[in-house]
Amino acid sequence: xxxxxxxxxxxxxxxxxxxxxxxxxxxxxxxxxxxxxxxxxxxxxxxxxxxxxxxxxxxxxxxxxxxxxxxxxxxxxxxxxxxxxxxxxxxxxxxxxxxxxxxxxxxxxxxxxxxxxxxxxxxxxxxxxxxxxxxxxxxxxxxxxxxxxxxxxxxxxxxxxxxxxxxxxxxxxxxxxxxxxxxxxxxxxxxxxxxxxxxxxxxxxxxxxxxxxxxxxxxxxxxxxxxxxxxxxxxxxxxxxxxxxxxxxxxxxxxxxxxxxxxxxxxxxxxxxxxxxxxxxxxxxxxxxxxxxxxxxxxxxxxxxxxxxxxxxxxxxxxxxxxxxxxxxxxxxxxxxxxxxxxxxxxxxxxxxxxxxxxxxxxxxxxxxxxxxxxxxxxxxxxxxxxxxxxxxxxxxxxxxxxxxxxxxxxxxxxxxxxxxxxxxxxxxxxxxxxxxxxxxxxxxxxxx
Length: 449
Description:
- The protein is α/β, with parallel strands linked by helices.
- It is built from 14 helices and 10 strands.
- Strand 1, helix 5 and strand 2 form a beta-alpha-beta unit.
- The relative contact order is 0.08.
């Protein structure tokens, strides 16, 4: 589940990364190590630290993690870092480097970073326990021994940061509609369900509700059938918990990488393409028809927040321009509009949306507010698309599902591709989609009208 407005949990990991890298580089500069190529040494250490941390999952410390987990991560990280550190001498032939100073550097790095990591861990526990910050509101569906044990963990382990609100028993006095109403009205963040107490149909309804309302759903495993799905397995104290959907972009590091890529890519397009293309197109658009150069339309973005999506105006201005989707041989499309729509040039101003953080270069295409409200009620799991930022292009568009939605099959398949993208995101996948989009623009697409 994406972080809600006002929550700053997502910044903890990037900040820790930056602080640790600062310590690594500052100590290397301050100590008399006698390296002949300082920039090479600093780049080598920084890159090695990042690669090792990704391998050991050094920054993957969940709110329910035990202290032993932190100590294990520190040990693993610095064992590899020690080997990589001394390997620099042999790899880059540095006979003048002081081995003693290198040992001192390693020791100080170990002390400073370990202290910082443990201190961050302890302070976060205290912050949740005593100041009630970084809290997640939860409900439990199920009335059995394991469900009660989990509730006891929520109530006793305040440092985990879970605020238990209510327990539902579908076998005795509650119904799923009762649960759904309470969850929506009380802005519950996470739902924990004992699968032993729900029927297959109820389980399906619960999953659909969580998807469509953007709630995090996790299971207390009591039923072997649930293991047929691809699930994420975690422990809260000694209680096993299963999570149905693991979204890569919920990881702050992944989100940071994607945002950095979006910023760089959008700046390149804005500075080197839109800077000269916009005045040229503005002149042609104004000469052909009255109206603004840019067309803006309200659309739904991440967490269903509305924003104005920008395009070069390709149609004559009408009263229903914000509500009616373009169709084949649409009489509203101008001559220059036909060209820029065919080549997707009309979409380029959305790089301003990307730069402002409202969109991403790659992601599920944002729909008009009217269509979101319609499909959100009619198409199963449609709202899952809003777990991430919308994109200028997306996996569904490269697979032929772009433009006008003519049949229900079009939107159903578009949603399937969007959900696959959300659950399987990687930077390599983004680059592949961008390359495919550019190739499709040159070749021309059937539904680019």
